[in-house]
Design brief:
Layout lengths: L8 H21 L8 H21 L2 H28 L1 H5 L5 E4 L5 E7 L4 H16 L3 E7 L5 H16 L4 H10 L6 H10 L4 H7 L4 H15 L7 E4 L2 E4 L4 H14 L1
Parallel strand pairs: 2-3
Antiparallel strand pairs: 1-3, 2-4, 4-5
Helix pairs in contact: 1-2, 5-11, 6-8, 6-9
Length: about 260
């Protein structure tokens, strides 16, 4: 998962401008009522900016504090937005008829996973899902096709979506073979996996013409955007969005915590 690191340049400049404005205000406040000369205001602003710059260079820990406060504020806003979306889009997240289910379809515990067949972290997390489903018969994974890693991924997911339509009972095995395979997944490799499982290429290519497949991808991308999901794997567990391959133990803990709340 990649994170965007916000720069502090804007914050520093804002502080400098604020200081400049404050200094100019002081000059005007102690004047005799005549407008302060423009040159004097510019000089005072430049002087104030220089003082602030020197102070920040001497106390760089202030910049870290500012960045930490900004990050905390942004995270709080993001969590609130996610909470609102988790409520308003609950059916689309947990009960979409277009999403494949791995595990017990009638389970009371659910993990929703956004994945890409070419995501190395998703490949690593595959074993976590397999172990969790095997250990807990009351658990299901809802699989969200989220091809964000280029044309190869899009083509692989097109085949997967068609396979899901043609042979839904075999999808779990297909998914594990394709995601667990070596090399980069694409249309050719996805078709090879499907063929090895007895599903003909011609049948899949016909199913791939269904415009509903693109519509499904579009809805998933829109949902991910609302949830501020920009990388894979990403999970929705209860009322929480979890980013990255955090491991089976951590996932189990979050599932149990979500179950306890509900």
């Amino acid at each position: 998962m990649q994170k965007i690191i916000l720069g502090l340049t804007g914050t520093v400049m804002a502080l400098a401008l604020l200081g400049g404005g404050y200094a100019a205000g002081r000059v005007h406040a102690f004047s005799t009522g005549e407008p302060a000369p423009v040159v004097a205001q510019v000089d005072n602003r430049a002087q104030t900016e220089s003082i602030i710059r020197d102070y920040l260079l001497s106390n760089p820990e202030i910049l870290v504090e500012v960045q930490t406060a900004l990050n905390a504020r942004d995270q709080e806003a993001q969590q609130k937005q996610q909470a609102d979306v988790l409520k308003s889009e609950k059916a689309a997240i947990y009960q979409s008829a277009n999403d494949a289910i791995i595990g017990n379809p009638k389970a009371t515990k659910t993990v929703v996973e956004f994945f890409d067949y070419n995501c190395g972290y998703c490949k690593h997390a595959l074993a976590d899902m397999q172990a969790m489903v095997q250990d807990d018969p009351d658990l299901r994974f809802v699989m969200k096709e989220f091809p964000i890693l280029g044309p190869d991924s899009q083509q692989a997911h097109m085949v997967a979506a068609a396979f899901k339509r043609v042979a839904p009972e075999k999808y779990a095995e297909f998914h594990m073979r394709l995601l667990g395979g070596s090399g980069r997944a694409g249309e050719a490799s996805a078709l090879r996996v499907a063929s090895s499982m007895g599903v003909e290429e011609a049948t899949l290519r016909e199913a791939m013409k269904d415009p509903a497949i693109i519509e499904e991808f579009t809805r998933t991308f829109e949902l991910a955007n609302k949830l501020s999901i920009s990388g894979t794997p990403a999970y929705v567990i209860g009322n929480e969005v979890v980013s990255g391959a955090i491991g089976a133990d951590a996932l189990k803990s979050k599932v149990e915590a979500a179950t306890a709340i509900n």
